[in-house]
Amino acid sequence: MSDILVVKNISKNYATHQALKNVSLSIPEKTIFGLLGPNGAGKTSLIRIITQIISKDEGEILFDGKPLSPEHIAQIGYLPEERGLYKKMKVGEQLLYLSQLKGLSKSEAMHRLKEWFVKFDIKTWWDKNIEDLSKGMQQKIQFVATVLHEPKLIILDEPFSGFDPVNANLIKDEILELRRKGSTIIFSTHRMESVEELCDHIALINKSEKILDGPKQQVKEQFKSNIFRLEYRGHLNTSNAYTILAQEKLDDNYYQANLKAAEGLSPNQLLQELMPQVEISAFQERMPSMNDIFITLVTGKNPAESLKKTPLDTDIEI
Asked: Rounded CA gap, 56 and 46, in Å?
């Protein structure tokens, strides 16, 4: 898989504040790439450099193997966190105007807009003024404006902000469909449940520096803590192979426990240790969530601590 965007050693300073320090990323094509970090970490500065809104101080960016240049703007769609629609313009008029700025002819723009208006069930919105729409309705319009020209690279900054669950799910499905059709999406958000659900790769920026990146599942493997949930019948003995972190009775015959396996012990080896003792009805490794990993790296807290405290009857998404 080739990379559609390669960021090499990018730095950016504002007066006395360094927004980015020697940040490098490789974003594979046809993937959803989560760009994560706390407020003020430097994510928005990096996005604005990629979209050529601001200039970098140092470093290089390659788009599809070539140095990033103004000609690439037409191949990028950007949905900023601070929405920017013309309040007094009508919806249809505005979308036609923005699509032609991105290089579409009026006839092609009209054809694509009709499809989107049907898909989003907004056929009656064409002659409405933007200022007469709710925040969520405006979000839909700006999303359409972002993707209408079918860009190779789509940058979404908090795309679910302002949406109710039904419309958030609608947009989520469209993001997945855009990836299926060949677009690459950079997805910047604070909603870790969305990262779990959508992202293939992630990068975490904190205090102006990249501190983590890689395929999402590989990152989660890196932070796993050898904690397992066991549901069983019988008597669970203490052992050098594991530590019992928490335990509770389910009914007269069954129990649940959180176990931490000894260093280097595989799940199969742990099962071999447990099977002679108890009758096992459920066994699951409890992986740290992206939220656990985010908190770990930003605050220094151990993700294993959150898993120890997780209620025994709550599943951890892997």
From this structure: 9
In a domain, 174, yes or no: yes
Sequence-distant (≥ 6) Cβ neighbours of residue 41 within 8 angstroms: 205, 206, 207, 208
For residues 247 and 230, give the distance between their C-alpha atoms in angstroms, rounded to a whole number.
Answer: 9
Q: What angle do CA 187, 224, 27 make, to 5 degrees?
A: 25
Classified as helix, coil or strand, 61 is: strand
Integer Cα distance of 32 and 155 in angstroms: 10
Last-in-domain residue among 158, 193, 215: 215
Please give the structure tokens belonging to residue 173.
């499905």
Helix (H), strand (E) counts: the chain: 10, 14
> What are 231-269's pLDDT values in tens digits?
999 999 889 999 999 999 988 789 999 999 999 899 999
Residue 315 lies in a domain: no
Does 237 lie in the same domain as 117?
no
Within-domain flag for 65: yes
Q: Is 293 helix (H, G, I), strand (E, B) or coil?
A: helix
Residue 149's identity, in one-letter code, is: H
Please list the residues that pair with 199 across neighbouring strands.
Answer: none
What's phi and psi for 132, nearest 5 deg? -90, 0
Asked whether residue 170 falls in the same domain as residue 283, the answer is no
Give the residue among 96, 102, 13, 111 at the shortest CA–CA distance from 51: 102
Q: Can you list the positions of beta strands (E) in the chain?
A: 3-14, 17-28, 32-36, 58-63, 66-67, 76-79, 153-157, 184-188, 201-206, 209-215, 227-234, 242-249, 254-261, 278-285
**Is 8 in the same domain as 135?**
yes
Same domain membership, residue 173 and residue 38: yes
CATH number for the domain spanning 49: value is 3.40.50.300
Q: What would the pLDDT profile of 75-132 be if each residue is shown by its tens digit?
A: 999 998 877 788 889 999 999 999 998 889 999 999 999 999 999 999 999 999 999 9
Same domain as 108, residue 62: yes
55 domain-assigned: yes
Domain that holds residue 180: 3-215
